[in-house]
UniProtKB/TrEMBL annotation:
<dbReference type="InterPro" id="IPR001509">
    <property type="entry name" value="Epimerase_deHydtase"/>
</dbReference>
<comment type="function">
    <text>Catalyzes the two-step NADP-dependent conversion of GDP-4-dehydro-6-deoxy-D-mannose to GDP-fucose, involving an epimerase and a reductase reaction.</text>
</comment>
<dbReference type="GO" id="GO:0042351">
    <property type="term" value="P:'de novo' GDP-L-fucose biosynthetic process"/>
</dbReference>
<dbReference type="InterPro" id="IPR028614">
    <property type="entry name" value="GDP_fucose/colitose_synth"/>
</dbReference>
<keyword id="KW-0413">Isomerase</keyword>
<protein>
    <recommendedName>
        <fullName>GDP-L-fucose synthase</fullName>
        <ecNumber>1.1.1.271</ecNumber>
    </recommendedName>
</protein>
<comment type="similarity">
    <text>Belongs to the NAD(P)-dependent epimerase/dehydratase family. Fucose synthase subfamily.</text>
</comment>
<dbReference type="GO" id="GO:0050577">
    <property type="term" value="F:GDP-L-fucose synthase activity"/>
</dbReference>
<dbReference type="Pfam" id="PF01370">
    <property type="entry name" value="Epimerase"/>
</dbReference>
<comment type="pathway">
    <text>Nucleotide-sugar biosynthesis; GDP-L-fucose biosynthesis via de novo pathway; GDP-L-fucose from GDP-alpha-D-mannose: step 2/2.</text>
</comment>
<dbReference type="InterPro" id="IPR036291">
    <property type="entry name" value="NAD(P)-bd_dom_sf"/>
</dbReference>
<keyword id="KW-0521">NADP</keyword>
<keyword id="KW-0560">Oxidoreductase</keyword>
<feature type="domain" description="NAD-dependent epimerase/dehydratase">
    <location>
        <begin position="12"/>
        <end position="246"/>
    </location>
</feature>
<dbReference type="GO" id="GO:0016853">
    <property type="term" value="F:isomerase activity"/>
</dbReference>
Amino acid sequence: MASESKAGPMRVLVTGGSGLLGKAIEHVVQQQGGKLEGEEWIFLSSKDADLVDVGQTRAVFEKYRPTHVVHLAAKVGGLYQHMRENLHFLRDNIKMNDNVLQTAHEMGVSKVVSCLSSCIFPDKTTYPIDETMIHNGPPHDSNFGYSHAKRMIDVQNRAYFQQYGHRYTAVIPTNVFGPFDNFNIENGHVLSALINKTYKAKKEGTPVTVCGSGAPRRQFVYSLDVGRLIIWVLREYEEIDPIILSVGGEDEISIKEAVDFIAEALDFKGNMHFDTTLSDGQMKKTANNAKLRRYLPDFTFTPLKEAIKMTCDWFVDNPDIART
Ligand SMILES: NC(=O)c1ccc[n+]([C@@H]2O[C@H](COP(=O)([O-])OP(=O)(O)OC[C@H]3O[C@@H](n4cnc5c(N)ncnc54)[C@H](OP(=O)(O)O)[C@@H]3O)[C@@H](O)[C@H]2O)c1
């Protein structure tokens, strides 16, 4: 990756700075030498400003006067919460995204990188799916509110470019995990919920029950890798069209393989039970990372086994701050 910034000194405001990806970017910037001379990075949580509120959004932008914005903040939830509250996910995210993008425009922010998600892609589609297919059909019914709000970021980015020439863009990570993830067994992301479940089973001497057969395959990406890639996008990526940030289809692994890595990392020697009466969800939903590979053919993702081990170690060492 190029280490020189094309953009010059930046004052970067990161919304959602207290979440999984925000903390990963903070780590890369503050502890892995990711910050360049003269740069300033500000990491916001909802305590600094409720971005659903336009007044609070403007006030926080006035306070920090950013030149660049990484917009990660979003109302996110588990499957059942999404199904119950599609309207809240739609309205809160539309408001948050519009407040951030329009305030950035009004205050002359030169670049905004927002975050979409691979779960907003059309429900009925062909795989591997790529960046050109986001709007080709309705999203899955369970989270249509969240998905449509996210899709509108892409529409809005194109409109800001058409009317004002702004280079506001978006990234599409696949299944991110790492320190500071949500490890809640019911509502957390699959890999982190399994880490919590396995650790609990080890402490209590009980077996682990995994929902489904373990056969579905997913592209898991370590949050620190995505953090490094988002910083590259902020500095180097000039397109308005979004870019998928993920390992390739060849690095997709099954839930069973992920569970084996977790068991090894946590030294769990008990029984694993796969409850095949529970739904597997989609077997595969491979995202194509060819665009990323065209730009960064040599980018190295952290080997999954190593990344899972580091995440398990972080979870075990940080019971007070891990979200469970
Ligand atoms: N994790 C994944 O696998 C994944 C995959 C693809 C895309 N993404 C996207 O990546 C982005 C970051 O995800 P994440 O997993 O890091 O999320 P996360 O850990 O759930 O963090 C969400 C962040 O948004 C902030 N936030 C929520 N509501 C807010 C509000 N009303 N005002 C201001 N801030 C608010 C939270 O602040 P508090 O801490 O104060 O609540 C937190 O910093 C999201 O846009 C998500 O859609 C995530």
